[in-house]
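Open question from group meeting: does this chain pack into something compact, or does most of it stay loose? Before anyone orders reagents, we agreed to write out a predicted structure and look at it together. Recording both the input and the output here so the notebook holds the full record.
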Amino acid sequence: MLKPNANYAKLNESYLFFNIARKVKAYQQKNPNKKLLHLGIGDVSLPLCEAVINELHNAVNEQSDEKTFHGYMPECGAPFLRERISDYYKSKGIEIEPDEVFVSSGASDELGDIQDLFDKSSNALIIEPAYPAYVDANTMAGREIIHFPSGEKDRFAPYPDKNVKADIIYICSPNNPTGAVFTREKLASWVEYANKNGSVILFDAAYEAFIEDEEIPHSIFEIDGARSCAIEICSLSKTAGFTGTRLGYTIIPKDLEKQGMNLNAMWVRNRTTKTNGVSYIIQKGAAAVFTPEGQKQIKENINVYKHNAKILADAFDSIGLWYCGGKNAPYLWVKCPDGMKSWEFFDYLLNELQIIGTPGVGFGKNADGYFRFTSFGSKEETLLAAERIKTFLKNA
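Structure tokens returned:
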């Protein structure tokens, strides 16, 4: 008799975005003339840059000509894109070879699929508050999860605990939802921990392009010893607006071996078995991101989001509201005023200020009492929201 994966029954129901949508709909029905300001969206609002669009069009045209038509692509990624990404790392002083780069349809897909490399007996340490998919993907796999809390004292970027033994370690820097970043010293402590314990770090670098402080690493591979203990997963979604176009990449060094098995070679075998590669058209568009013109254009878009983040940060500073993030990340993680819980603050912002954000409790049990704002909205809505926050939450 067929048995379904019983681990799905262990998943907590995700009421976060359902409840947000329900509350917003009810408010709009009662207040049809009120304009809502959206600061909770995790999606980008600016279009793909010109360099990418031009290359996408060129690739589509190539597919219409028998001489330039492309069918199946290499499962691990087109050589032209793997080389571009390798060169991007080398421009930052990080030696990553093209065959250590694996092209994917996005970081979210890869963060789940990468678990194929590890036996189900391996546990996973997840620093919380965290992107909910980390927990859900490991729950589906039947893996033991270590919920590792962070907080205001460590600005939501903790050091490892030598008394905790973890096999797989999730680190996201800059972090979603908190906007926290791991300093070089903190990352080095996790690399040392991983090498000492035989662990593997899954480093989510989806927001690395937002880092502006020189002392904050963009990549785990800036840290000595990381090649023997880390996998880096990145995405063009927030970097270049590929949320609807879908492309990411994973770095697995050839140095990474566990119990005589090479994880780079294992992932080659996995991809050549489980995928048919990413579309030629999308890979051509992605390659344009890593050209000088593409880099210039995507940074112009990122600067718009960073300016939005500064508008919000200045508003919080002016009224004495505690927060982290914003400077090196598109997210700002705010402590709810007057001891409010996350959903209580959500209701206040919606009903009194017409602002929509994301209740922190949706990102982990230790996140109640906090709230996530994003900078991906329009400048106009961000300015309006900042003025309302300064007016109504002064001295909160």
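Observations to bring back to the group:
The mean pLDDT is 96.
The domain at 15-44+301-392 is CATH 3.90.1150.10 (Aspartate Aminotransferase, domain 1).
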